């Protein structure tokens, strides 16, 4: 399945953005450092509620997820 | 050539994992409270939580997405702690690695680096056999990590470490994960990118012949009919266990042990019944 992704601070996610993506508050991946961010994703065209945000492809989001904000291992 | 899925055994479920957030797990607490008569809440291979003195085997069918270069198939580790437990997966550019925690954070690993790893479905088996004597420097506890690919033993192909003294295999606190390891140093960002199916856990070191029986010429089969079915303690994405979605997936354990898993980060439609091209 080919997704598009955005990263948003959880406190800033609007009800429309939750509705427009495939993740819920129960299922979305969260960052482990700093203000909690969530990873939202969808297939197909970008919903209008995500206009103005950086939209990541699969390859791009995998690179983002390798950053320390999203990793638990202490010595990585 | 490997075929998937089997055309006569048609109970395989295939998880499509995106490499960034998708995985399944059963927590240590859930392992302990699973409603089976064999559970006693302690270290026990029959509870997915072997000690260094208990052998185990993990089997999984996988198809790696070629865009990923470091991803975990299965792990049992204390999340956030370096190498506290064991993990198996693609640890670099088409390197399959089985790593177990050793003394003072030293990992004991076996790996193979086969050029054809990235192509098509593969059958992977990882065996921890605590009865096999290790190399030099061993004292009381020795062990062996073995890897099989498509039914053949590749433990000596590209091995990065030999048999060694194992101090710790698992921890009571560690969750059992399919598609993720949080120890990213070995496994990229730790999340499997591609397909996984027919993941099973056995509380014994399966023999080469028994692993051939699992491989079954490249066709997943009913593990309830396997010679060592009495050692089958976990079986996900195969068999009669159901898969249902409500916010997250519930993936039932088909072994009868009650070790049902819950997904995280996975969208509805990520697990399918049916055919994925070889």
Biggest sheet overview of chain B: 9 strands, antiparallel
The count of domains of chain B is: 1
Q: Span between N and C termini of chain A?
A: 29 Å
Q: What's the gyration radius of chain A in Å? A: 12 Å
State the shape of chain A: globular
Instruction: Describe the strand arrangement of the main beta sheet of chain A, using strand numbers.
Output: 1-3-2
CATH fold type of chain B: Jelly Rolls
Helicity level of chain A: 10-25%
How would you explain this protein's 3D organization?
Chain A is α+β, with helices and mostly antiparallel strands. Chain A has helices at residues 15-20, 58-65, and strands at residues 4-9, 29-30, 37-42. Chain A has one domain (4-70). Chain A has 2 helices and 3 strands; from the N terminus they run βαββα. The mean pLDDT of chain A is 90. With 278 residues, chain B is mainly beta. A 9-stranded antiparallel sheet of chain B has the order 7-6-5-4-11-2-16-15-14. In chain B, strands 1, 3, 8, 9, 10, 12, 13 and 17 form an 8-stranded antiparallel sheet that branches. The longest helix of chain B is centred in the last third of the chain and has 8 residues, at 208-215. The radius of gyration of chain B is 17 Å and the shape is globular. The termini of chain B are close together. The interface between A and B is medium-sized, with 26 and 30 residues.
């Amino acid at each position: 399945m080919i997704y598009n992704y955005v990263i948003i601070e959880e406190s800033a996610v609007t009800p429309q953005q939750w509705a427009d993506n495939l993740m819920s508050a129960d299922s979305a991946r969260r960052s482990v450092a700093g203000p909690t961010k969530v990873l939202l994703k969808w297939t197909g065209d970008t919903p209008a509620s995500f206009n103005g945000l950086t939209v990541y492809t699969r390859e791009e989001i995998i690179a983002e997820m390798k950053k320390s904000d999203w990793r638990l291992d202490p010595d990585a | 050539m490997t075929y998937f899925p089997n055309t006569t055994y048609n109970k395989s479920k295939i998880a499509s994992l995106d490499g960034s957030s998708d995985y399944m797990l059963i927590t240590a607490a859930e392992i302990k409270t699973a409603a089976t008569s064999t559970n006693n809440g302690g270290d026990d291979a029959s509870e997915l939580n072997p000690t260094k003195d208990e052998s185990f085997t993990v089997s999984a069918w996988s198809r790696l997405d070629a865009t990923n270069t470091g991803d975990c198939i299965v792990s049992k580790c204390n999340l956030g702690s370096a190498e506290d437990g064991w993990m198996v997966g693609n640890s670099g550019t088409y390197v399959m690695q089985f790593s177990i925690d050793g003394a003072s954070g030293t990992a004991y690993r076996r790996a193979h680096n086969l050029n054809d790893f990235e192509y098509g479905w593969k059958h992977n088996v990882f065996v921890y056999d605590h009865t096999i004597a290790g190399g030099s420097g061993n004292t009381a506890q020795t062990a062996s990590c073995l890897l099989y690919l498509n039914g053949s033993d590749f433990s000596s192909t590209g091995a990065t470490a030999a048999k060694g003294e194992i101090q710790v295999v698992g921890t009571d606190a560690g969750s059992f994960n399919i598609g993720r390891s949080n120890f990213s140093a070995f496994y990229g960002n730790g999340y499997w990118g591609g397909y996984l199916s027919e993941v099973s856990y056995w509380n014994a070191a399966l023999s080469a012949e028994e692993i051939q029986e699992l491989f079954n010429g490249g066709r997943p089969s009913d593990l309830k009919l396997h010679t060592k079915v009495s050692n089958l303690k976990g079986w996900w994405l195969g068999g009669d266990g159901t898969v249902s979605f409500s916010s997250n997936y519930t993936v039932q354990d088909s072994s009868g042990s009650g070790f049902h898993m819950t997904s995280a980060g996975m969208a509805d439609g990520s697990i399918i019944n049916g055919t994925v091209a070889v």
